[in-house]
Amino acid sequence: MSTAVCTTESLVSLPSSTRTASAIPPAVRRGAWQIAPGEAMSLKARSASVLRVKQGRVWVTPDATSASPSEDLVLAPGESLNVAAGQRIVMEAWDGYGATYSWDQA
Hints:
Elements: E1 4-6, H1 9-12, H2 26-29, E2 33-35, E3 40-45, E4 49-55, E5 58-62, E6 73-75, E7 80-83, E8 88-93, E9 99-105
Antiparallel strand pairs: 1-3, 2-9, 3-8, 4-7, 4-9, 5-6, 5-8
């Protein structure tokens, strides 16, 4: 189950017509999400979570905290990032192919 709040305006207000089962990509139905080439999104963890890259590469920028400065990361398939409760990340597909990822409780 997803434990993130999407804070990207364009993704929060998807029309109801795109929420039908036929409009949901197969990867999403299998517990993964897709990010299109050139698309960026902001996610905020409600609880400690793990971002796992399934396919493609993603460019991730976590918000800076008092314990660690913000740094850009590129995650490839099989790599993951632990995200603390309340922490926000900005994520973008790294190349022109898009990416598939999962977001699970830690």
